[in-house]
Design brief:
With 496 residues, this protein is an alpha/beta fold. It has 22 helices and 16 strands. Helix 8 links the parallel strand 7 and strand 8. The longest helix has 20 residues. The structure holds pyridoxal-5'-phosphate. The site of pyridoxal-5'-phosphate (PLP) has 16 residues, from helix 12.
Length: 496
């Protein structure tokens, strides 16, 4: 199977090339030229298998230039009980009448990003050996908090790779920041910028497509790649857990084979929910895709009106990993919904870059609304939802997951649709103690992140993940911050 660019259909690359490059030269994103379909029998055959076996079945459809041994090596290296604190890798359980929380945060950094970023370094290594042996890959990352740490954890110490992570100085939680600035590993570094996530993401995208820097890299025997969800190697592992979740519900006798389920996802860069869309297109019986945003509700407006407009205030919320006004992966969806119209995609994204907005024609909007429903909730409603879930079910959710739970509830109220629904639970509540605590206790919230953790442990009776507790006393390696205009200089410095 080959991959094409959303901005130039004539581009054709292998999966390994798509993973190595991260982004196409003209700025487009790589998508499969045809989506593989699993028949009902093939899907049914996955029932009862381990997560890794399900992952192998899905990935082998997309990474056709990888041998079965290579795929097995990557998957078994990433998904195991050394890296994940549950043998099932992800976990799904019913919370409420008709909804299931799919916990995707049992990896080393306690957010769903680990599901992809534990695997990506393996995929990258195999891809490099195929496409550019001997070249050093320089991975640049823009993070709204969780990607950065997950990428660092995945790539630290991986031979032939170097990584630089940019994060918004005031845009991440205390725990997220601590996770990143204490990261060890000679080949990785971290840099705070004075700006928000969109600034970091735009800066990184501009550096990727800068011909001068690219020439310099080539001279040094290096090349850029991306660990953000613009990289196909980030997205494809995420399709797996929707296939795995559906088959797990059958194993748990919650649904019968063929029953349709909806999926609700707390959304920022549109990677996670796009993976659910791909799972649906592959043949998993998924109905509505419920796209949940926080107060930065640019996607809600887009799904409801067809107009994407980033010219609006940017809010810092209690769900920082969704504080995004430019959702990169929407580009892939629009490419598919427009019948692979690369010219239209170029025009929309040129308009987004130039004036900050674009509007899609009504036929595309109808297709969009047939598949997706958009809603949003603010910090107060998210906190009330954390409280309610804890009170009613003894279930403690993080603020991102709470946004999805609330929007799911709004969806049911508005539509009366009582289809069983998988809600993506994207982070451990312990990553966001400062916002979770006030929702579940009247006790004053201590300033120290480890005292917060201890208080949450007392209130919830649930132990904090070991990887977070272990941060206590770790030396801080990265301090200070730079202007966003200095990002290029910072990258050049690292390359020297
Ligand atoms: C990254 C992230 C999201 C948003 O996911 P996208 O794939 O960017 O839409 C939601 N919740 C958490 C905890 C995250 O880390």
């Amino acid at each position: 199977m080959k991959y094409q660019s959303t901005r130039d259909r004539s581009t054709r690359v292998t999966a390994a090339q798509a993973i190595v490059q991260g982004i196409s030269h003209e700025g487009g994103l790589f998508v499969p030229e045809t989506l593989p379909v699993m028949t009902a029998e093939e899907l049914q055959a996955l029932v009862g298998l381990s997560y890794n076996e399900k992952a192998k079945a899905v990935l082998s459809r997309f990474l056709t230039d990888f041998t079965p041994d290579e795929i097995a090596h990557c998957i078994d290296g990433a998904y195991n009980v050394r890296n994940f604190d549950t043998p099932g890798i992800s976990q799904i359980s019913r919370v409420g009448e008709l909804s299931y929380l799919l916990e995707l945060w049992h990896g080393p950094t306690c957010a769903f990003k680990d599901m992809a970023l534990q695997l990506l370094p393996y995929l990258m290594k195999v891809s490099m050996d195929k496409e550019a042996p001997g070249t050093e890959v320089v991975v640049l990352v823009a993070t709204s908090g969780d990607t950065g740490k997950a990428a660092l954890e995945g790539f630290a110490g991986v031979p032939g790779t170097r990584m630089l992570v940019f994060y918004p100085e005031n845009g991440v939680s205390g725990m997220q920041k601590l996770q990143m600035v204490t990261q060890t590993g000679d080949n990785v570094s971290v840099c705070a910028i004075k700006g928000n996530f969109d600034d970091a993401q735009s800066g990184v995208k501009a550096i990727f497509t800068d011909p001068v820097i690219e020439a310099e890299l080539e001279k040094n025997g290096q090349m850029f790649s991306s660990a953000n969800s613009i990289n196909w190697g980030r997205l494809v592992p995420q399709i797996v857990y929707y296939v795995a979740a559906y088959t797990s519900l059958i194993e748990q006798e919650e649904i019968a084979f063929g029953d349709v389920v909806n999926v609700a996802v707390p959304t920022g860069n549109f990677g996670n929910i796009l993976a659910a869309y791909y799972a649906k297109k592959m043949g998993v019986p998924i109905g509505k895709l419920i796209c949940a945003s926080n107060r930065n509700n640019v996607l809600t407006d887009f799904i409801r009106t067809g107009c994407y407009n980033r010219n609006r205030d940017f809010y810092t919320t209690t769900s920082p990993s969704m504080d995004i006004l430019i959702s990169s992966n929407l580009e892939r969806l629009l490419f598919h919904l427009s019948g692979e119209d690369d010219q239209a995609v170029r025009e929309w994204f040129a308009a987004l870059a130039q004036k900050g907005s674009y509007t899609v024609p009504s036929q595309i909007m109808e297709k969009l609304q047939a598949e997706f429903w958009g809603g949003f909730c603010d910090d107060e409603a998210a906190a009330a939802t954390i409280h309610e879930q804890f009170d009613r079910y003894g279930y403690l959710c993080d603020p991102h997951t709470a946004v999805a739970v609330k929007v799911y509830e709004d969806y049911v109220k508005e539509t009366g649709d009582n289809t069983r629904t998988i809600i993506a639970s994207t982070a451990s509540p312990y990553k966001f103690c400062g916002s979770v605590l006030p929702a579940v206790t009247d006790a004053p919230v201590p300033a120290d992140p480890f005292e917060q953790m201890e208080l949450l442990r007392q209130v919830s009776g649930m132990n904090p993940p070991a990887s977070l507790a272990e941060l206590k006393g770790k030396p801080v390696r990265f301090t200070g911050s730079i202007e966003k205009s200095q990002m290029v200089e910072k990258v050049k410095e690292m390359l020297r």
